[in-house]
Design brief:
By secondary structure, this protein is of the alpha/beta class. It has a single domain, classed as Alpha-Beta Complex (Lambda Exonuclease, Chain A). Helices cover 50% and strands 14% of the residues. The chain contains eleven helices and eight strands. A five-stranded mixed sheet has the order 2-5-6-7-8, with helices on both faces. The N terminus is likely disordered.
């Protein structure tokens, strides 16, 4: 007799929330807004993610020196800022002019460093491999697996060394080497989904740190796959009503849910 499948399919984004704080999964699942308001920092990250999708086109057409690359990136940024209300109408619905100007200025300030890092990667890896790693064959494809009880939308799929692999765009800080642990889980989840869809092994993935113009290739290990499945099971329990224990983290004071997140999980579950 087959086991009864969970009633609610888990999103990859739930796994990433869990990796930062299990209780964030609980609150979001109960209708709380993860990002209640647009801010200059959040807008900056939206802009830089969109800008990164133009890297391959820019690198193909411009002469590869710092000045020309910086000018092309700035020109692309202007177009993106014009298109933003069409791309993200819900997110920008309440954004003030000051927030829009702040977000654009913050994103523009990152362009010199992005240009330097892209040129450095081109010199180290060669133009064609870099273009292959950056050029999407699909942008934001929907992936789903009933067997995994998992679904999600990777930033893009790229064709590299004959294999179609996921590439995820991250707008936060970049580690000196490798990728952050939560980013490894993120990439591994999409590798599992892509394997379930294609029936082929996907041995690696890319993580692109868009605020820096840095691209990291990571080999997906069995331990990464195991961690994804472990977290998915924990998320299933939370979505079924389980209240995880509170963990004191460095970002707790800045969390949108801090006023609702009391230490006693048994007491809090009576109210939520």
């Amino acid at each position: 007799m087959s086991a009864e499948s969970p009633s609610q399919e888990i999103n990859v984004s739930d796994l990433i929330l869990y990796a930062t704080c299990p209780r964030r999964v609980y609150f979001v699942n109960r209708g709380f807004e993860l990002f209640p308001e647009m801010s200059g920092q959040r807008l900056e990250r939206l802009i830089l993610k969109e800008l990164s999708l133009t890297y391959s086109e820019i690198l193909r057409k411009c002469s590869l020196n710092a000045d020309s690359l910086r000018k092309e990136l700035e020109a692309s940024l202007v177009k993106i800022c014009t298109d933003l209300p069409l791309l993200f109408p819900r997110e920008l619905a309440g954004a003030t002019r000051e927030i829009l100007e702040e977000g654009e200025a913050r994103a523009r300030a990152k362009i010199p460093e992005i240009a330097v890092n892209l040129l450095g990667a081109l010199e180290e890896n060669g133009k064609e491999p870099m273009l292959a790693a950056l050029t999407p064959v699909k942008t934001e494809p929907f992936l789903s697996s009933e067997r995994l009880n998992l679904k999600g939308v990777p930033s893009k799929l790229v064709c590299f060394e004959g294999a179609q692999v996921p590439s995820i765009l991250k707008s936060g800080n970049c580690p000196e080497k490798g990728v952050w642990g939560s980013d490894r889980i993120h990439a591994a989840a999409f590798v599992l989904l892509l394997e379930a869809e294609s029936g082929k092994e996907v041995p690696f993935a890319f993580v692109e740190y868009v605020s820096f113009g840095l691209l990291r290739r990571i080999i997906i290990r069995s331990s990464d796959r195991r961690e994804v499945l472990k977290i998915r099971r924990e998320v299933e329990k939370i979505k079924a009503g389980f209240m995880p224990e509170r963990k004191e983290e460095r970002f707790c004071k800045e969390c949108n849910f801090s006023e609702h997140c009391i230490p006693d999980s048994s007491l809090m579950s009576k109210f939520f």
